[in-house]
Amino acid sequence: MNASEEKIALEHEAARLFMRLYEKRFGISMRHIWHNEPARPDVSCYYDEQKLDLEIAHLYGSEVEAMHILGRPLTTNTHKELLSLLRTPAQHRLLTALNRLICNKAEKTYNTDRVWLVIRNANPLWTRRDILNHHQQLHMPAQHPFEQIWLIGDMHGSTGILALYPPALTALEQG
Fold it and tell me: CA dist 155 to 106, 121, 126, 128, 166, Å?
């Protein structure tokens, strides 16, 4: 599988996982995903019989951590970079990486009426609870195309989903 095919497979897996978790939590049907071209968000689906687009992102922390998590061969320098990262507190790295990811995605424009950003946490050092404890420190850009922003707490979805935006949804997470 080449890098492009792997990226699409990871996006589809994350979209299916999110839709299943969302449907279980809220009882609203989400069905029929398909992949889109770059001018549109990654995946489209039907949300309670209405079209909805999902932009999918994976939260690794850094490119070096992504290589390690995805099982890429690591050079001696890459190993050194990973060890160096361990000296930085995990929570600081979490907020920095999550803010950077959201800001980068916020700069995109999409040819669609409704788009949600779905972020899957791929870093095993961070948990849904870590993100919940620090999500109020997120730096949400003033302008972005997302109606809602969600986070899947871990690669397998075993810790569920967490609303990061809008504030009315994030308020539900505090209970």
Answer: 23, 6, 11, 11, 23
The mean predicted confidence, pLDDT, of the chain is 81
Who contacts 112 (Cβ-Cβ below 8 Å, separation ≥6)? 40, 41, 53
**pLDDT, tens only, 100-126:** 889 889 998 888 889 999 999 988 878
Torsion (CA) 90, 95, 97, 102 in degrees, nearest 10: 160
Ramachandran assignment for 49, one of left (phi > 0), alpha (psi -120 to 50 degrees), beta (any other): left
User: Cβ-count burial of 74 within 10 angstroms (0-12 exposed, 13-18 middle, 19+ buried)?
Assistant: middle
Q: Which pTM was predicted?
A: 0.83
Q: What Cα–Cα distance (Å) separates residue 69 from each residue in 55, 59, 63, 79, 101?
A: 21, 11, 10, 13, 17
